[in-house]
Specification:
There is one protein chain. The strands form two sheets. An eight-stranded mixed beta sheet has the order 1-2-4-3-5-6-7-13, with helices on both faces. Strands 9-8-10-11-12-14 form a six-stranded mixed beta sheet, with helices on both faces. The protein is about 50% helix and about 20% strand. The longest helix is centred in the N-terminal third of the chain and has 26 residues. It folds into two domains: about 180 residues, Response regulator (Rossmann fold); about 120 residues, 3-Layer(aba) Sandwich (Rossmann fold). By secondary structure, it is α/β, with parallel strands linked by helices. Helix 5 links the parallel strand 6 and strand 7. The chain contains twelve helices and 14 strands.
Length: about 325
C-alpha cells in the first residue's frame, strides 16, 4: 500500500514545503536559545500564536537530531509559533516530557517513537486532552493507531530493502549491519529490510552509540574475525565514521555505507571512503510537522489522508555529495 501511494504523499510534502519556504524567505531565520542538562536538550523559538512541543528520543548533541531541531525552530519562525524542543533516549523520561507538555497545555506535539509501546500511555493522554500530535522518524506503523494526524519520515524497512538492492549492485556478498541503539524499532527494521532483498549474508552487530570509540573497536574485531566481510552498513553518521576508521585499522577492503548524513560523512563520500548515505532529510522531519500542526489548528487541515508523508529515502553519493555539503554548512542537511 505504501509503495503505490508514495508519490502522492511526496507531492503533498513538496507543496507544503513550497508554501513554507515562501513564508520563511519573508521572516528570516533568527537565533535559537539553547538549554542543556545531562539528560535532555531543550530549545525554544520566540513566542507566537501557538505553542508546539517537539519531544524526541535523541541524546543531547546528536548531529542528526540537531538538524531536526533546526528545522522545527525554522518552522516555528516561519509560521509565527512558539516551538520548544527536548529530547531524551530513555523512553520513560521521554514519556515524562510528553506528560509535562500536556500539563502545560501546549497546542500540539511532535514526537519520535523509537519505542512506541513505551509512549503509548502518554500519547493516549495527549488525545484525551485534545492535543493533536504528529509522529516523526520512528514509529510509522503505530502512528495512525495511536491517533497521530500524520507521520513524517521514511518507511525504514522499505529503505532497507532499497539498500539491499544497492549492495547487490555493488557485488557485495557478506555484510555487517551495525545497530547502535538496543531496542530501537526503526534500526531493526532497516537491517530487516536489507536482509529481504540482499542476496548475500547479513549479520547484525550491536554497538553503543554512547561509546563511539568502543563501537569502532567492535566493528574492527568483527572484520578481523571474518575476513570474508566485504561490506559494513552503519545506521548512524557517527558510527559510519567509526566504521570507516575501523575498516582501515583492520586492513580490510570492505565497503562502508550508511543511513543518515553529517558533514563528516559527506567528506568521506567525496573522498570515496564511504560508498553512499541514505538521506531521510531530517530537516523536513522538524520543519513540516510544525507547519502541519499550525494548519490543523488554524484551518482544520490534515495532510496525508491517513498515510505518512515521506521525507526519504534519497541517496547521497560521490556525484552529489558536494552539493549537499553546501546545505550541511547551514545546519539544514
Amino acid at each position: 500500500m505504501f509503495r503505490s501511494t508514495k508519490q502522492v504523499w511526496l507531492a503533498a510534502t513538496a507543496v507544503a514545503a513550497g508554501v513554507v519556504l515562501t513564508l520563511s524567505a519573508c521572516t528570516g531565520t533568527g537565533a535559537v536559545d539553547k538549554q542543556k542538562d545531562s539528560n535532555t536538550q531543550a530549545a525554544a523559538s520566540t513566542s507566537g500564536k501557538y505553542t508546539f512541543a517537539v519531544i524526541t528520543h535523541a541524546a543531547p548533541g546528536d548531529t542528526f537530531w540537531d538538524v531536526v531541531k533546526t528545522g522545527a525552530m525554522a518552522g516555528g519562525k516561519a509560521m509565527g509559533d512558539k516551538v520548544t524542543y527536548q529530547g531524551d533516549p530513555d523512553v520513560q523520561k521521554q514519556s515524562q516530557l510528553i506528560e509535562s507538555a500536556i500539563a502545560q497545555k501546549v497546542d500540539g506535539l511532535v514526537v519520535s517513537m523509537a519505542n512506541p509501546e513505551g509512549l503509548k500511555g502518554a500519547l493516549a493522554d495527549a488525545t484525551k486532552a485534545g492535543i493533536p500530535f504528529v509522529t516523526i522518524n520512528s514509529g510509522l506503523a503505530q502512528s495512525q493507531e495511536y491517533g497521530a494526524i500524520t507521520h513524517v519520515g521514511q518507511d525504514e524497512e522499505l529503505a532497507g530493502e532499497s539498500v539491499g538492492k544497492r549492495l547487490d549492485s555493488e557485488g557485495l556478498k557478506n555484510v555487517l549491519c551495525i545497530i547502535h541503539e538496543a531496542g530501537n524499532q526503526g534500526l531493526e527494521q532497516r537491517c530487516d529490510g536489507i536482509k529481504k532483498t540482499f542476496t548475500g549474508t547479513v549479520k547484525n552487530v550491536q554497538v553503543d552509540i554512547n561509546n563511539v570509540a568502543d563501537a569502532g573497536n567492535t566493528i574492527k574485531s568483527a572484520l578481523l574475525s571474518d575476513t570474508s566481510v566485504d561490506g559494513v552498513v552503519a545506521l548512524n553518521p557517527e558510527v559510519a565514521v567509526a566504521a570507516e576508521q575501523a575498516r582501515d585499522n583492520a586492513g580490510s577492503k570492505a565497503k562502508v555505507a550508511t543511513f543518515d548524513v553529517s558533514s563528516d560523512v559527506l567528506k568521506l563520500i567525496e573522498q570515496g571512503k564511504i560508498l553512499f548515505a541514505v538521506d531521510q532529510q531530517q530537516y523536513l522531519q522538524g520543519y513540516l510537522p510544525i507547519v502541519f500542526l499550525h494548519l490543523y489548528k488554524s484551518n482544520g487541515n490534515t495532510v496525508g489522508g491517513g498515510m505518512p508523508v515521506y521525507s526519504g529515502p534519497g541517496y547521497i553519493t560521490k556525484d552529489n555529495a558536494a552539493q549537499v555539503a553546501k546545505y550541511a554548512k547551514n545546519g539544514t542537511r
